[in-house]
């Protein structure tokens, strides 16, 4: 194997809890609702799936259903889908909907999995190419820079920049091309069997990890090093 493609959310990074997300946005706006209201609102936001990278919606309202399946093909659709979900939850102020969306794009809202730095650094030492392939509606590069992982990533292939989303094979093909790697020599690592499994359509090996809180998944990325071995790019 000469290259590895990694998913972002649930694979290399885990988003903060819904309650922490809400509290962060409240603090940014200087809002201090009662504790009971904060806890209730966090539960309702989580059930609605309003936090990008968090829990999936328990139900899709009619005003969101039409855009949900293509939300990651543009920044505008991504914002529209998630702010529409949050608007189904009563919030202390209307401006909090946009504040929540902005909050999830900040580096502080994300935590790398414990073994992410070790695995990415080892791949770089072995000369193995690395790309991040993500269904997303915003630029995640600042998150990698803030957490010190950007130096080990050779390319970012983000759905909203290409207008297509996983499992579309074109996104994986673009990543392989960016790394100068043949798909048969590439491993795709992700947490979503449908979306990330699409890499198999162009001949990539696919390896799955579980989307768990960071503290509960200390070393799930390390088997990737065994899959890749010591083969470097030619």
Automatic annotation (TrEMBL):
Gene Ontology MF term list: hydrolase activity
Pfam family, one: Hydrolase
Presence of the UniProt keyword Membrane in the record: no
Keywords: Hydrolase
Highest taxon listed in the record's lineage: Bacteria
Family annotation (PANTHER family): HALOACID DEHALOGENASE-LIKE HYDROLASE (HAD) SUPERFAMILY PROTEIN, PTHR46649
Protein name as annotated: Hydrolase
């Amino acid at each position: 194997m000469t290259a590895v493609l990694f998913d972002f959310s649930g694979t290399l990074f885990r988003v903060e809890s819904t309650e922490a997300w809400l509290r962060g946005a409240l603090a940014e706006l200087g809002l201090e609702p009662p504790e009971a209201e904060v806890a209730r609102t966090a539960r309702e936001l989580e059930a609605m799936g309003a936090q990008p990278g968090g829990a999936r919606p328990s139900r899709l309202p009619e005003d969101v259903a039409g855009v949900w399946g293509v939300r990651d093909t543009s920044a505008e659709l991504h914002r529209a889908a998630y702010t529409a979900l949050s608007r189904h939850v009563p919030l202390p102020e209307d401006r909090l909907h946009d504040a929540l969306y902005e909050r999830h794009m900040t580096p502080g809202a994300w935590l790398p999995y414990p073994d992410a730095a070790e695995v990415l650094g080892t791949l770089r030492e072995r000369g193995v190419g690395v790309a991040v392939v993500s269904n997303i509606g915003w630029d995640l590069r600042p998150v990698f820079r803030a957490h010190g992982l950007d130096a080990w990533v050779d390319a970012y292939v983000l759905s909203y920049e290409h207008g297509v989303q996983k499992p579309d094979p074109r996104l994986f093909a673009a990543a392989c091309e960016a790394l100068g790697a043949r798909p048969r020599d590439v491993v795709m690592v992700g947490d979503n069997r449908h979306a990330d499994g699409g890499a198999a359509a162009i001949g990539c090996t696919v390896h799955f990890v579980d989307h768990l809180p960071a503290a509960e998944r200390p070393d799930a990325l390390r088997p990737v090093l065994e899959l890749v071995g010591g083969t470097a790019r030619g």
